[in-house]
Amino acid sequence: MGKKFLLDTNAVIDFMANKLPESAKKELAKIIDTEINISVINKIELLGFDKVDQDLIDFVSFSNIYQLDEDITKHTIEVRKKYRIKLPDAIVAATALHHGFTLVTNDTADFDRIKGIKLLNPYFI
After folding, report:
1. Segments forming the whole domain that contains residue 59
2. What's the CA dihedral at 22, 95, 4, 116 to 10 degrees?
């Protein structure tokens, strides 16, 4: 099995809004066509807007959503304490680390200090 990816909220929003360069959009589409993985916090962020269009609702419904189980909760606490990052980012980072995912995000600066995390900026695929 190939490399697995966890999509951050900003990557999904930019993909859905056609903000990515054409080559990056094609590469991200390949990742999405293979398997969509998001954290429960990404689901909350994506569907928590006042107006959510049906395409986004469908996207989330087709995603594998990784919940906050005991292992991810413990990992989140460790990441938050060690790196002093926002709770949503700590949850996303802990989910990626725990499952060995490469995190697809254009906010790489929020995560690049975290030891062991693999990052992919969708604008530079």
Report:
1. 5-124
2. 90
